[in-house]
């Protein structure tokens, strides 16, 4: 019996071919890790502290707003009313920082309130802006809406509001412009007429009041003022 022996070349080994073509294991692991998403970790204690900080900030903001001065507007005032009468009437609501009486009806308030004689001869609508110490006092002042203020023989029903747009003076102006717009253009669309009336409020002419003459007038030459009787 004859045995034939064949030498096997290592280069022809199929096992070796598979190993040379295979991707290294380390590269496979690296590529798979790149595709993996990192899980997000939340710290309950840190999240709770953040929520507490936000809650405290909101409370501080609300508390500070309650401490800030607040304004209310008072309309439908008597013609002979003054700042002292308004301050005395609203003193029950809380501390009042200031009271300013303003005029509507085409008057410019750059020179102060008009004279009583002018008020008696012309139709002047007055309203007041009251500055109160905080929101609590302002809310108490709003409760006086609809109450009556009597000055001498004249008694009127007050309109107290947060917005000057709710004053009867403003509503009256808008209504006048609304009627004029409808009469001029013949439109029946109330919405368009109201928008035009609101825009026309900015074009309302004003009446400038002349100030009283100075008891001691002074002249001016080259920027230097001097009493007139000296020359």
TrEMBL record:
<feature type="domain" description="RRM">
    <location>
        <begin position="70"/>
        <end position="165"/>
    </location>
</feature>
<feature type="compositionally biased region" description="Basic residues">
    <location>
        <begin position="47"/>
        <end position="65"/>
    </location>
</feature>
<dbReference type="InterPro" id="IPR012677">
    <property type="entry name" value="Nucleotide-bd_a/b_plait_sf"/>
</dbReference>
<feature type="region of interest" description="Disordered">
    <location>
        <begin position="1"/>
        <end position="65"/>
    </location>
</feature>
<dbReference type="GO" id="GO:0003723">
    <property type="term" value="F:RNA binding"/>
</dbReference>
<dbReference type="InterPro" id="IPR035979">
    <property type="entry name" value="RBD_domain_sf"/>
</dbReference>
<keyword id="KW-0694">RNA-binding</keyword>
<dbReference type="InterPro" id="IPR000504">
    <property type="entry name" value="RRM_dom"/>
</dbReference>
<protein>
    <recommendedName>
        <fullName>RRM domain-containing protein</fullName>
    </recommendedName>
</protein>
<dbReference type="Pfam" id="PF00076">
    <property type="entry name" value="RRM_1"/>
</dbReference>
<feature type="compositionally biased region" description="Polar residues">
    <location>
        <begin position="7"/>
        <end position="17"/>
    </location>
</feature>
């Amino acid at each position: 019996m004859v045995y034939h022996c064949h030498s096997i070349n290592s280069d022809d080994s199929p096992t070796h071919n598979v190993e040379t073509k295979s991707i290294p294991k380390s590269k496979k692991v690296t590529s798979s890790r790149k595709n993996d998403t990192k899980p997000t970790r939340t710290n309950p204690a840190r999240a709770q502290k953040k929520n507490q900080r936000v809650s405290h900030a909101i409370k501080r903001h609300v508390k500070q707003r309650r401490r800030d001065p607040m304004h209310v507007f008072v309309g439908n005032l008597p013609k002979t009313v003054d700042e002292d009468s308004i301050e005395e009437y609203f003193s029950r609501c809380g501390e009042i920082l200031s009271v300013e009486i303003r005029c509507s009806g085409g008057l410019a308030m750059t020179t102060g309130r008009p004279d009583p004689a002018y008020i008696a001869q012309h139709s002047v609508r007055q309203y007041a802006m009251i500055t109160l110490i905080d929101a609590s006092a302002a809310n108490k002042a709003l409760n006086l809406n609809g109450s009556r203020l009597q000055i001498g023989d004249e008694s009127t029903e007050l309109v107290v509001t947060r917005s000057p747009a709710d004053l009867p003076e403003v509503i009256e102006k808008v209504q006048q412009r609304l009627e004029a717009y409808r009469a001029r253009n013949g439109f029946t669309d109330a919405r368009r007429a109201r928008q035009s009336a609101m825009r026309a409020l900015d074009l309302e002419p004003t009446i400038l009041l002349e100030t009283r003459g100075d008891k001691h007038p002074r002249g001016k030459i080259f920027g230097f003022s001097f009493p007139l009787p000296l020359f």
